[in-house]
Specification:
Layout lengths: L3 E6 L10 H9 L2 E4 L15 E4 L11 H13 L3 E6 L9 H10 L3 E5 L4 H8 L13 E5 L10 H5 L4 E5 L5 H10 L7 E6 L7 E6 L3 H8 L5 E5 L9 H7 L1
Parallel strand pairs: 1-4, 1-5, 2-3, 2-4, 6-7
Antiparallel strand pairs: 7-10, 8-9, 8-10
InterPro entries: 4pyrrol_Mease (IPR000878), 4pyrrol_Methylase_sf (IPR035996), 4pyrrole_Mease_sub1 (IPR014777), 4pyrrole_Mease_sub2 (IPR014776), CobA/CysG_C (IPR006366), Siro_Cobalamin_biosynth (IPR050161), Uropor_MeTrfase_CS (IPR003043)
Family: Belongs to the precorrin methyltransferase family.
Pathway: Porphyrin-containing compound metabolism; siroheme biosynthesis; precorrin-2 from uroporphyrinogen III: step 1/1; Cofactor biosynthesis; adenosylcobalamin biosynthesis; precorrin-2 from uroporphyrinogen III: step 1/1
């Protein structure tokens, strides 16, 4: 475990959704670098470690990426076992691949540990099956926040025939709505806007593409939240469980 960095997905928030492999890495860690969206309860698995907060959130003061990478490198070169603990999955909008390549380029052993992503966990807890047979032939995960502020190909997404899961979209709801409508998506396409996926305070607002901006304002939707867009949103599964969870 020496001179190694583990890039670990902590899942969407519920600490019981940690994988056994993630727990094992935490139990052996000497340094844990934790993101803002990670539930602090998961740190119960690493009482021996030094915890360093390196949060990165849109619209908030964030730790520079270059600093995070240099810090991981420094501790690894000192022979410590380092865990970079990320919300969700490190390779789904988590810069896991970027960090792994950089560290390996500097001679550091890296291991990636998957975590359950918020789009899946939030949808499931709301009773939405992302690939319900007959309604969706796949899932497309996109982020509304791009590094160069470029627009996604909304026409391709609108006509792709898959369930669309949008991360980091709360601040860009109007652009998403307009892009999908202009791209040919039906105005009545169901939308679920899910805040704090998998946590006890998870909230959900059901709407459609045409009305989602107005409904989100009335609902008071706030980050972190994901959008699930597609026919599957109109099919409720596990209704009793959802009612108990809510």
């Amino acid at each position: 475990m020496n001179a190694k960095v583990w890039l670990v997905g902590a899942g969407p928030g519920d600490p019981e959704l940690l994988t056994l492999k993630a727990v094992r890495a935490l139990q052996q860690a000497e340094i844990v670098m934790i993101d803002d969206l990670v539930n602090p309860a998961v740190l119960e698995h690493c009482p021996q470690a030094r915890v360093i907060a390196v949060g990165k959130r849109g619209g908030c003061r964030s730790t520079p990426q270059a600093f995070i990478q240099r810090l991981m490198l420094r501790h690894a070169r000192q022979g410590r076992c380092v865990v970079r603990l990320k919300g969700g999955d490190p390779c789904i909008f988590g810069r896991g691949g970027e960090e792994a390549l950089w560290l390996q380029g500097h001679g550091i052993e890296v291991e990636l540990v998957n975590g359950i992503t918020a789009g899946l966990a939030g949808a499931t807890r709301c009773g939405i099956s992302l690939t319900s047979r007959g309604l969706s032939r796949g899932v497309t995960l996109v982020t509304a926040h791009t590094q160069d502020d470029s627009e996604l190909n909304w026409a391709a997404l609108a006509q792709g025939g898959t369930t669309l899961v949008v991360y980091m979209g709360v601040a860009r709801l109007e652009q998403i709505r307009r892009g999908l409508l202009d791209g040919g998506m039906a105005a009545g396409m169901p939308v679920a806007m899910i805040e704090n996926a998998s946590l006890p305070q998870q909230r959900e607002c059901r709407s459609d593409v045409a009305a989602m901006v107005k409904d989100a304002q009335v609902f008071g939707l706030r980050s972190p939240a994901i959008l699930v867009i597609g026919d599957v949103v109109g099919e409720q599964v596990m209704q009793e469980w959802v009612a108990e969870a809510g």
